[in-house]
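Deliverable D5.2: sample structural annotation.
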Amino acid sequence: MRFYELFQPTTPPLAQTPLASVLERTAKQAGIDGVELAQFLAQCHVETIGFNTLKELPNKWQKHYEPPSKTAAMLGNTQPGDGQRFIGRGFIQVTGRYNYDQFAQNSGIDVVKHPEYLENPTTAAKAAVDYWLNRVRPSVKNFADTHSVTKLINHAGKNIAERTQAFKQYVAKLPPELQPKTQVAQTKQVQPNVAGQKKPDVKSKAVPAPVVKPAKGQTPKPGQAGYVPPGYDPNKPGSGIYADPNYKDPDSLSTMLKQKGLASK
């Protein structure tokens, strides 16, 4: 049994559909838990229109994906037809040749040659977790801040209201010990001074909850100081994504197994 298989998430199931459950299971295996998991699912919920599609629906913006255009250049689309070939797919709607290529390199699954692989729930879940660990998590200080997280998923901040509402729904399912915590100081009324003048009231101020340290000799848990998600190495792109022995593309699976040191070269 591998180390990551020993990891037992403390978050109860949050997903309500089979498709979302595939994503949640993959996320927990990679160490995404608690408030971070609620935000991750909320973002993917909106990206997939309530977990109803893993492929971007036709829209007016897709014409800008085709080169030459500024959007195409940003997405790494360089060849005729790249716009439609690399439209948004997966739970976080991986878009553009560059992003497809990044996941292909990290996972060993050739989604550049076969973009449709990202419409497979298992592969799409791995791609979403890969993107989150490498492109989102390193830039987030507070996963309860939906606006900041959204900017890393959708630079234009589209559907922020829907994302905020989705996060509220998922985070509400967390047990009390995993809820976002802030301490609010009570307002103090200052008595009048000798001259009969009142000093301004002291305003309430939100104070971040202190970092919880694990007990001596115990392994840090999610949310505690020193916790490191199992299988994740910030210096190794794609770490935390594991080979799926049931994956149907033998060439891609073989490549991934070799890259992860899980099979002989």
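Annotation notes: Strands lie at 182-184, 206-208. Residues 1-9, 183-192, 202-209, 238-247 have pLDDT under 50 and may be disordered.
The annotation will be released with the project's public dataset once the embargo ends.
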